[in-house]
């Protein structure tokens, strides 16, 4: 079925986004209005020259789509394309042959739209279609849709910034970091909490990722300054 966009409603919906959940809901609503079957949204926000924070959302069924979305780094061919281009392109040529076959077997057409924002952030919004009329509708209205995609990208960028400023640590992550702040090693933390050393290391690495920190001391400092722990 050919798509139909209520631009005012979609923009209002996009501007009301305040979390990953509401971003996913907005993307789902837009997907239905476009007459698409699925979406894949990924945004990359540079932290350093070698590290990126990534927000990735999709509604692709695992059984056929896991391979399309498993790479969340700039090594992903879709991310590489999005970082260097602005034009809409077909997804299939960017993928390895086995993933091209996955699309073909599902009779899906994937269209990738690169999006660029503030702070060198970039991303891609891919929609999957089965109906050729919906593909033509998308292509004919891509300039109008670009305004919507830009708002979605801005909201995703804001979500990542808020998550970095107010990271939500699990109780176990807080426990591990508390003992590290007392000068304990990973091995000692594991013994105190009666968990495996590998598990303690896993929780502490999660803290580094959530706080966008290079090391544990930096993570502790950030969390102390914003009052998130202790």
UniProtKB/TrEMBL annotation:
Residues annotated as signal peptide: none
BP GO terms, sorted: regulation of DNA-templated transcription
GO molecular function: DNA binding
Domain of life of the native organism: Bacteria
Keywords: DNA-binding, Transcription, Transcription regulation
Record CDD domains: LuxR_C_like (cd06170)
A family per Pfam: GerE
Matching SMART domains: HTH_LUXR
Domain HTH luxR-type: 162-227
Alphabetical list of PANTHER family matching this protein: DNA-BINDING TRANSCRIPTIONAL ACTIVATOR DEVR_DOSR (PTHR44688), HTH LUXR-TYPE DOMAIN-CONTAINING PROTEIN (PTHR44688:SF25)
Protein name, per record: DNA-binding CsgD family transcriptional regulator
Species this chain originates from: Gallaecimonas pentaromativorans
Lineage of origin: Bacteria, Pseudomonadati, Pseudomonadota, Gammaproteobacteria, Enterobacterales
């Amino acid at each position: 079925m050919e798509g139909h966009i209520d631009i005012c409603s979609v923009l209002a919906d996009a501007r009301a986004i305040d979390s990953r959940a509401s971003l996913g809901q907005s993307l789902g609503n837009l997907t239905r209005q476009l007459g698409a079957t699925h979406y894949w949204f990924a945004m990359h926000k540079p932290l350093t020259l070698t590290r990126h924070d990534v927000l990735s959302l999709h509604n692709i069924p695992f059984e056929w789509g896991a391979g399309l979305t498993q790479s969340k780094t700039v090594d992903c061919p879709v991310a590489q394309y999005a970082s260097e281009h602005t034009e809409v392109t077909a997804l299939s040529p960017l993928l390895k042959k086995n993933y091209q076959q996955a699309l073909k077997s599902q009779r899906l057409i994937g269209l990738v739209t690169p999006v660029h924002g503030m702070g060198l952030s970039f991303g891609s919004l891919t929609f999957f279609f089965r109906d050729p009329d919906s593909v033509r509708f998308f292509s004919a209205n891509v300039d109008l849709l670009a305004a919507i995609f830009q708002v979605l990208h801005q909201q995703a960028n804001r979500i990542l910034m808020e998550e970095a400023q107010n990271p939500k640590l699990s109780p176990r992550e807080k426990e591990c970091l508390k003992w590290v702040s007392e000068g304990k090693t990973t091995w000692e933390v594991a013994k105190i909490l009666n968990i495996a050393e590998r598990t303690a290391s896993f929780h502490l690495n999660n803290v580094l990722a959530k706080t966008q920190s290079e090391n544990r001391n930096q993570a502790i400092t950030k969390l102390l300054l914003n009052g998130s722990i202790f």
